[in-house]
């Protein structure tokens, strides 16, 4: 049967993708950041997952304020990089895994998670930048991907606990898939940052480091965080961290922390990366 072998939480900062695409990743500003990715890339290559479930949020590329599903699974055979106003990123198209995606859809709905389903969907930097962080610049991504889009943009967003429980349901669904697959779950977004208003530029390293610690030590504390606490302590865009909890919920009780990296600033946000083996 299929099994989850790895989990990753990582920021999906668009400027990271732009630096890589423009060949700026070796300059004085970006070099320490990309050096911090190398350990995670080597580790993931050694894990060699057959497929990855990537939990991300759309940034008005596939969805809009007029249509904003809470949870959406991508069921397509291929997902193209989205045009976010400056052309499509020059990265490979993302191959899907429709068989596992449909199985997840069926099992999650049976587990009382009402999932939207996308048979066609472009994927923006929320998904492609984490692939670049973890895989570099290959001619083709080394594994197919099942996109799982979460609404963290428009009120009301799902709670941290609901996201954690969704991850647990994903773990059960993967374990019930009959094919022998090694599955990675990647949660994206964050860490602390705010892009607008009087607190634009917010950075809270104490919150971020405690969040990273408790992904390993006490994920139930993180699942109990309410929206007001998340926005107060991590900024309005820090809400994206609930997507890391989908990943963590899927890993079970005691995964082993394999790698961690934290850096500030990266563009106008704190950057975090944590990796687990099960």
Question: Any descriptors?
Answer:
278 residues; Protocatechuate 4,5-dioxygenase, Chain B; 8-stranded mixed β-sheet; two-stranded antiparallel sheet
Topology, element by element:
Blueprint: E1 3-10, H1 14-21, H2 31-47, E2 51-56, E3 71-74, E4 78-79, E5 94-95, H3 98-110, E6 116-118, H4 125-135, E7 145-150, H5 160-175, E8 182-188, H6 205-217, H7 219-223, H8 227-234, H9 242-250, E9 256-266, E10 269-277
Helix pairs in contact: 1-4, 3-5, 5-9
Judging by the overall fold, what is the CATH architecture?
3-Layer(aba) Sandwich
Q: Determine the N-to-C terminus distance.
A: 15 Å
Oligomer: single chain
Low-confidence stretches: none
CATH topological fold name: Protocatechuate 4,5-dioxygenase, Chain B
Number of contiguous helices: 9
Question: What is the class in the CATH system?
Answer: Alpha Beta
Q: Note the main sheet.
A: 8 strands, mixed
What percentage of amino acids are in beta strands?
A: 15-25%
